[in-house]
Amino acid sequence: MDKNYKITRHVCPRNCYSSCAMLGYTRNRKLVKVTGDKKHGYTNGKLCPKGYNYLSHVYHPDRLKYPMIQNKRGSGEWNRISWDEAIDIICDKIIELYDRFGTNLSLALNKYSGNFGILHNSVEGFFNSLGQTSRAVGSPCWSSGLDASVYDFGNYKNSEPEQLCYADTIILWGSNPVWTSIHSVPYLYEAKRRGATIITIDPVYTATAKKSDMYVQIKPGTDGAMALALAKMIVEKNGLDENFIRKYTTGFEVFLNYLKSLEMDILLRECGLEKGIMEKIADTMIQGKNTLVWIGFGFQRNINGGQNIRSINALMAMTGNIGKKGSGILYAQKAGMNFTNSITKYFHPGFNEENSVRSIHMNDFAKGLKEANDPPIKMLWVSCRNLLTQNPDQKLLEKLLLNLELIVTVDQFLTPTAKLSDIVLPAKTNFEEWDIVPSYWHHWIGINEPAIEPFYESKSDLEIIRLLAKKLNEWRPGFSTFPHEKSIEDFIEEEFTDDIYQGLGITNWRDLLDGPKRVNLPEIAWEDKAFETPSGKFEFYSERALKNGKAPIANYTFSSLGKDGGQFLLLTNHGQFNLNSQFHNLDLLQKEKKEPIVYIHPSSASRNKLANDSWVSVFNDNGEIKLKCVWSHEVHPSMILVQADHNLINRLISFTPTDMGEVSSGYEGMAFNSTYVSIEEIGNI
Ligand SMILES: Nc1nc2c(c(=O)[nH]1)N[C@H]1C(S)=C(S)[C@@H](COP(=O)(O)OP(=O)(O)OC[C@H]3O[C@@H](n4cnc5c(=O)[nH]c(N)nc54)[C@H](O)[C@@H]3O)O[C@H]1N2
Ligand SMILES: Nc1nc2c(c(=O)[nH]1)N[C@H]1C(S)=C(S)[C@@H](COP(=O)(O)OP(=O)(O)OC[C@H]3O[C@@H](n4cnc5c(=O)[nH]c(N)nc54)[C@H](O)[C@@H]3O)O[C@H]1N2
Ligand code: SF4
Ligand SMILES: [Mo]
Whole-model pTM above 0.85? Predict the structure, then answer.
C-alpha cells in the first residue's frame, strides 16, 4: 500500500473468540481495504472470511442511514426523521412514563453481544443514571459453564490459548474451532507438529472433527456420563495424580465413592459409546504427560451443561492436569476485561448496583415482560441485540412486544427486531468510532479509531446516550446523572488506571494506536494453585453448590434426556460464515447457501420414512418450520441439526433453563440444545 492511504487501527468487536486486530486503509475518505494486524500476538495478522469482507458490511446498501419512525409497528411504513425529532419523542416518552408511574421501572433495556467494545457499556451507564429501570439480565451463551468453574476453581480463568501448542493430548470437547475460533487452528496444527494427539468429542462430525486424530460421536448432553466413565477407568488404571489430589484439592473421597457407585455399562449405554474407544482415550491421557481440554460453549447449552463441565473439571483435577504447561481447561475468562467500568457507574443519587435494576430473565424474557408488574414494562430499548432471532419463545415475544407503547432499536441494519420497533436509530461500525475491545479468550486488547466519517447519520451507542441524557436534563434538570458533557476521550481515559497501564506496558491509552497490547495475565491459568474457592483448593465437593441447591459433587442425572414418541433432539450449531445474526447479508459469503437444511442420520430418516432431499416439517408445541431433509452420517442418530443461522429456528425453541448460570450471570443459562422436535415428510413444496 502506498502512502496515499491513511492506515488506522481496529478490533472486530463481535462476540467471537478471536477479537481480531485489524488495519483499515482509507483513501479519499473511503475505507478501501481491511487486513489483519500483525502486531496482534494471537491473531497474527489474519482475519476470518467475515473479517476480510468488512468493506461490504460497512458500505452495505441495506445499512441504516437515518433515524426512522414506523407508522404502525410491523407495517413496514417507515419515515425518515431527524435526530432531534427522534430524541424528543424518546425523551418525551421516558418523562411521561416517569410521571405516570413515579419511577423509571416501566422502561426496560435488552442488550447483549452485538458489540463488545467497552464504550458500548454506556447504554447500561445511561440506564443506571436514571435511578431504577428494568433490565434483561443473564446470558444465552456461556453462563452454566462459568458457574461450573466457579464451583470447582472459585473463578473462571483461561490459560493463553497458545498453550495448546504444548499439550500431548488435546480434547476438543464440544467445540468447533475450525468454524467458530479460526485463529486457534494454527496452534492446533503446531501441537500436531509437535506430536500431540487431537481428539474431538461431538455429536456432529464437524469440520474440526475431520481434522482430528480421533473422533467420538457422543449422544448430545451425555458428556457427564462419558467423563465419569473415563474417570472410573483412570482410577482402575492407577492413573491418578495422588500428589496433586492431596495437596491442591478437597472432597476427592466423596467423588471417588460416587464413581465407585456408578456402573460402567450404564454410563457407556447412556452416552452410546463402546468401551474400546474409552479405553483408548483413558490410555492416551495417562501416557501423555499433559492433557488439555477445550470445552466449547455449545457443549453446555443443555439441561446438564454445568454438571457435565464439573465432571470434566474433576477428571482433569484427579489427573493433575491443572495449572501446568500444556494442560488445563480452556473455556473463557473475563480477567482481560478488567477495566474500571466507570462508564456504567454514574448512578442516580441514592442508587447503586444493588438497587437500580429490576431484573428480567434474559432467556425467559417473554415471560418476564408478561409478568413484570407494578409498574408494567411500557418502553423497551434494544441495543446490540437481535432478540427476534436469537431469543427463545419467539411467538410469545412478538405478541408481547406488540403491547408495549414504545420500542426503540439501535442497530446497523433493519433486523427482525428493528422491524418490530417504533423508532430505529442507525449505529456506527467499528470503522467509524473510538473504542477499546478486550477478549474473553486470548490475552490481548486493542483500539478502534475512526477511519472514516460516520455512514450517513449513524452515531455510536455512546453518542446516542449523550443526546438522551442532555435532552432529559434540559427538560428535567437532574433526571439523568450520565455526564453527557464529557468527551469520548474522557470516557476512555477513565476506564484505565495506572495498574492497567502498567500491566499493558503503556502510559496512555493512545499508545494502543501503535498496536494491540498483551494484558498482564499468567500464561497458564492456576499455575499458582491459588484457587479462589472457600477452601482455597480445587473443590471436588462444593459446599457453595450445595447451598445453591445443586449436587455438591459433579453429578450426572441419568436419562434426563430420554424422550419417547420418536422425537429428536434439535441442535442449532453456530455457522461458519455468520456471527450469530450478523453477516448473513454479505452476498460473497452466502453465495454457497442452498435451501434451509435439516440434517438427519440415514437410520433415523428411514425409520421415519423421510426421503433424502425431500421437504419436511420440523415441529413441536412451539411451532413448525419447513426444511430440506438431507441424510447425513455426520449427525448422531438421536438428533437433527439445523444451523443456528436459520432465522426462524427459535420459533421451535422455548425457554428451558440450563442447570447452572445464576452465580455468574444472575440467571440460569439457556438450554437451546435440550429442545425436542418431531419431523414429517411433506413432499414437494
Ligand atoms: N437457537 C439458538 N439460538 C441462539 C444460539 C444458539 O446456539 N442456538 N446462541 C446464543 C448465543 S451463544 C448468543 S451469544 C446469542 C447472540 O445474540 P445477540 O447478542 O443478539 O447477537 P448478534 O446477533 O451477534 O447481535 C445483535 C445485533 O447487534 C447489532 N450491532 C452490532 N454492532 C452494534 C453496535 O455497535 N451498536 C448497536 N446498538 N448494535 C450493534 C447487530 O447488527 C445485530 O443485529 O444468541 C443466542 N441464540
Ligand atoms: N463463525 C462463527 N464464529 C462464532 C460464532 C458464530 O455464530 N459463527 N458465534 C460466537 C459465539 S456467540 C459463541 S457462543 C461461540 C460458539 O462456539 P462453539 O461452542 O465452538 O460453537 P457451537 O456451534 O455453539 O458448539 C460447538 C459444538 O458443540 C457441539 N455440541 C452441542 N451439544 C453438545 C453436547 O452435548 N456434547 C458435546 N460433546 N458437544 C456438543 C455441537 O455439535 C458443535 O459442533 O462461537 C463464537 N464464534
Ligand atoms: S468475526 Fe471473529 S474471526 Fe472474524 S474478524 Fe471478527 S473477531 Fe476475527
Ligand atoms: Mo455466544
Answer: yes
